[in-house]
Design goal:
- The structure holds three protein chains of three kinds.
- In chain A, 81% of the residues lie in helices and 0% in strands.
- By secondary structure, chain A is mainly α.
- Chain A has one domain.
- Chain A is globular.
- Chain B is mainly α.
- Chain B is 81% helix and 0% strand.
- Chain B contains seven helices and no strands.
- Chain B starts with a helix and ends with a helix.
- Chain C is 88% helix and 0% strand.
- The radius of gyration of chain C is 22 Å and the shape is rod-shaped.
- Classes of the chains: A mainly alpha, B mainly alpha, C mainly alpha.
- Chains in contact: A-B, B-C.
- Chains B and C meet through helix 2, helix 3 and helix 7 of B and helix 1 of C.
């Protein structure tokens, strides 16, 4: 099963890197919104430190939805999705492979946006690189897994671009809240300890619960 | 026959609620610190209990419908979710009014309130999504899966006051604390109102279930009309 | 009876009842619309059969 997930992952990554449509669009969107934020909030004020986490993770959530939407839509042409469903690939492998691919794409967007944010707002986000990496990985996994599952649900709807965000954002609020809090700590250079670790446990628990649910339900969602 | 039964249950719930209202306002003692406003709890707590019970039934019905491909379970799921969502809004509104007086703010983003809000949004999205899928079996599969997903947020909302330190008051009912945190008369009143709400909820679910069956009949007849 | 916060308690009760009443009214009106649709369809189908 893991081998098949890896095959699906490679396929998706290769397809995306050939065209780079979604990545470019998502990156352009993220950078434009970052610049817009710098007009909305004065970049030189100290208040930016308090809202760093909030700004960044709203940005990543929006660009994440753009990326995740594409993962099943790109299979629509030439009935590729139906072929994948009737093939020997189990639905859970399909989900895992696509989620991994989406995770990689979201992390790529983050790896560009974080330095740009640091430069534009003059805040060093990389003081605790391992903590930052951990937070980004856990929260991006949450966006990827729930986004991919909901993308599978909404792939055949007319209004999928509307329904996907409407369904996804309420579900990922806790993961985003935890990521925002931890990113704020990391940006201030404080190592999370004591009470702050509750947020880390929340992120980990959230990821585990919803990954399990997603893997359990994907069969029903995709297979007729 | 069912109509008469429904009417009877509805009337019973109405009378029960009136009796409860009388007890609430006239018989029960006053709470030390809160004044009259604490009596909102007799609507707030039972409405959330009813709502969670509805979503539990919806989740089970959805799980059953996707495993056994049963359309009646699917109809039950949507009927119960809709009624549960109505009780969610009652719970949110009463909670906010109580909070305005006691905390001075309408809303705060503590764990329980956030999850309650998420629950309302996810089930509203479920109802929205159902309207967008024309094919009945696809609708059953996809929305059934979404319903089971959304039930996770109900569970977390229920346990939120145990897992986190919240602004929302901690558990007071004796089945959660072992007793001693609440006047037994007040606790009894909460259960009375809960039963009254369940009766009301049952009537609404049966009415909505019938409407769902009518809707399926209409769909089937339409397909027949277009085919012929 | 302790009269503090009576107004808001009244608003609270009113809110609870109002929301339930609005839901019941919408349920009943939707039911009526559905019945009308069903009647129309049945009539159309029986006419087509003739």
């Amino acid at each position: 099963m893991l081998h098949l997930s890896w095959v699906v992952f490679l396929k998706d990554v290769r397809m995306e890197f050939r065209g780079k449509e979604a990545l470019n669009a998502s990156l352009a969107f993220a950078l434009v919104v970052l610049i817009l934020f710098s007009f909305a909030f004065d970049p030189t004020s100290e208040q930016i430190r308090e809202i760093t986490g909030g700004l960044l993770w709203i940005l990543f959530a929006f660009s994440g939805v753009l990326l995740v939407n594409r993962s099943f839509v790109r299979e629509q042409s030439n009935d590729c999705l139906d072929i994948l469903i009737v093939s020997k690939v189990p639905a859970s492998s399909l989900l895992l492979g696509k989620t991994l691919a989406n995770l990689v794409f979201i992390l790529m967007i983050e790896s560009v946006c974080l330095p740009v944010f640091s430069v534009l707002y003059n805040i060093n986000l990389f003081q605790l690189p391992l903590w930052l990496l951990g937070t980004c990985m856990l929260a991006s996994w949450a966006i990827a897994i729930l986004g991919t599952v909901f993308a599978a649900m909404t792939v055949k709807l007319r209004l999928r671009e509307l329904m996907l965000p409407v369904m996804l954002y309420p579900m990922i609020i806790p993961a985003l809240a935890a990521a925002m809090y931890l990113t704020n700590l990391v940006a201030a250079g404080k190592v999370p300890e004591g009470d702050d670790l509750i947020w880390v446990r929340l992120l980990v628990g959230f990821d585990i619960i919803f990954t399990t649910l997603a893997l359990g339900l994907i069969d029903t969602i995709l297979v007729d | 026959m069912i109509d008469k039964l429904l009417f009877g249950v509805g009337l019973a719930s109405g009378l029960y609620l009136v009796r409860n209202l009388y007890t609430m306002l006239v018989v029960l003692p006053d709470e030390a610190a809160q004044g009259m406003i604490y009596r909102i709890m007799f609507f707030h707590i039972p409405s959330w209990w009813t709502c969670f019970l509805c979503f539990l039934i919806a989740g089970s019905a959805s799980a059953y419908s996707i495993t056994k491909k049963n359309f009646r379970a699917d109809s039950l799921a949507v009927a119960v979710t809709e009624v549960g969502l109505a009780f969610t809004f009652v719970g949110l509104a009463t909670g906010m009014i109580w909070a305005k007086i006691i905390w001075g703010i309408w809303w705060t983003w503590d764990a329980r309130l956030t999850w309650a809000f998420i629950t309302a949004l996810t089930y509203a999205a479920y109802l929205m999504m159902r309207n967008m899928i024309p094919d009945p079996s696809e609708r059953m599969r996809v929305s059934g899966a979404l319903n089971v997903f959304s039930f996770a947020s109900v569970v977390i909302c229920y346990k939120a006051i145990d897992w986190w330190r919240t602004q929302h008051p901690a558990a007071v009912m004796s089945f959660r604390t072992g007793g001693g945190n609440i006047d037994p008369a007040m606790e009894g009143m909460t259960y009375h109102n809960f039963f009254a709400f369940i009766l009301l909820c049952t009537v609404m679910v049966v009415v909505r279930l019938r409407q769902e069956e009518t809707r399926r009949e209409i769909e089937g007849l339409r397909r027949l009309a277009y085919a012929g | 009876m302790d009269q503090r916060n009576f107004t808001y308690m009244f608003y609270g009760f009113a809110a609870a009842w109002l929301i339930l009443a609005i839901y019941v009214v919408s349920l009943v009106s939707r039911g009526r619309k559905l019945q009308d649709q069903l009647e129309t369809l049945k009539r159309t189908l029986s006419q087509e059969k003739l």
